[in-house]
Amino acid sequence: MLELVAAEVPKTRDHLEHELLRIRGEIEIRELYFSRLAAALSAMNLAEDNESEMTTIDWLRFNCRLTQNVASDRVAIGEKLAAMPLSEDALYNGEIGIQHLATMAKTARAVGKEFDEKRLLPLAKKHSPGKFYHESLHYRHSVRPQEVASEQADLAENRALSMSTAEDGCVILQGVLDPVGGAALRTALEPLAKPMGKHDYRERPQRLADALVELATAGGKVAVQMQVTSSIETLLGLLGAPGAETEFSLPVSSKTVERWACDSSLTRVLLQDSVVIDVSRAEPTIRGPKRRALNARDRHCQWPGCERTAPNCDGHHLVYVMHGGSDELENLILLCTRHHRMVHEAGWQLVKTESGEIVTIAPTVTFGLPRGPD
């Protein structure tokens, strides 16, 4: 068993950085030796051709406690060192790292006789391991474009998405997208996932989730049509009223239905005493000339500091229709999906001043009940 000798940690920044670089260099040289041994074990296993034994990659995973990718990289480095003498020297000199060498080895495997170390090594010295991997793909495409196209086609064929519903009705997503499909999704989500105006305290994962929902409902400019079955009592928010229902969710709160009723493409089925009294067509509540006038006047979400553009916003009734509000332009403003939800479901209030300025009022928070009489 190795006996570690505790050493005093340097106290100055220069000494810390120097020691980190020195130790990292020693580790990478040992990693190179480890790679030679891993490749030798792999060659021995292939020569013995014993199918009952675990593969070299599996042996490294279980016994050396490595991930699949790291174990595979070490074997590849050891196998391709003979084709990368200049790169090996560069690692000894501290000009590149073991991850650069792993990318170089995988590229050598992929392109075979077309591998040219002299074209890749300057790029490895210039770029970080991640950026060098990116550049290596350009190199692979330049020498074997058809193989790269086939690999990308295979990745696209194997992309998958699963959806499961939790007990509380939340939908759990798990999936893998190919690089091209993933890039397309990120291109669509990133602009929608930026922080939005005042009071945006969301972490990035929440902003991405909100962006995905916005993309599905408005950001992609596709009007999603859902059938919502609700009672008059639910729309009025009366105590004791049941939730509304949609095809793919658990009962929906009256506040959410209230928001949808502001401006949506919902087919609404209204019930009274379990009898259908109204079925509306799937048309936005605010449409035609009125919607164009609202877009022209507001141009973007009216929440202070938010600049989500009009096509990605809902029309919001400052005074809800069921509470006596009208569909006149004076009672309408544009709100993006997030801020529209904050008003209806999260209890925020909006007040329009005489000058037309929108003032936000946060919901009242009660930290504890007052002490009763002794």
Task: Walk me through this protein's architecture.
By secondary structure, this protein is an alpha+beta fold. It has three domains: 13-155, no CATH class; 160-219, no CATH class; 224-283, no CATH class. The protein is built from 14 helices and nine strands. The strands form four sheets. The chain has a three-stranded mixed sheet. The longest helix is centred in the N-terminal third of the chain and has 36 residues, at 13-48. The chain is elongated, with a radius of gyration of 31 Å. The protein starts with 12 loop residues before the first helix and ends in a 13-residue tail after the last strand. The model is unreliable at 219-226 (pLDDT under 50).
Secondary structure elements and their pairing?
Layout: H1 13-48, H2 56-63, H3 68-80, H4 85-92, H5 98-111, H6 117-126, H7 129-143, H8 145-157, E1 160-165, E2 171-176, H9 179-189, H10 204-219, E3 226-231, H11 232-236, H12 254-262, E4 266-272, E5 275-279, H13 288-298, E6 313-317, E7 332-336, H14 337-344, E8 349-352, E9 358-361
Helix pairs in contact: 1-3, 2-3, 3-5, 5-6, 5-7, 6-7, 7-8
Task: Provide the descriptors you would attach to this structure in a database record.
alpha+beta; 3 domains; 3-stranded mixed β-sheet; two-stranded antiparallel ribbon; elongated
Structure at a glance:
This protein is an alpha+beta fold.
- Across the major sheet, the strand order is 3-4-5
Q: Mean pLDDT, nearest integer?
A: 81
The structural domain count equals 3
Basic shape: elongated
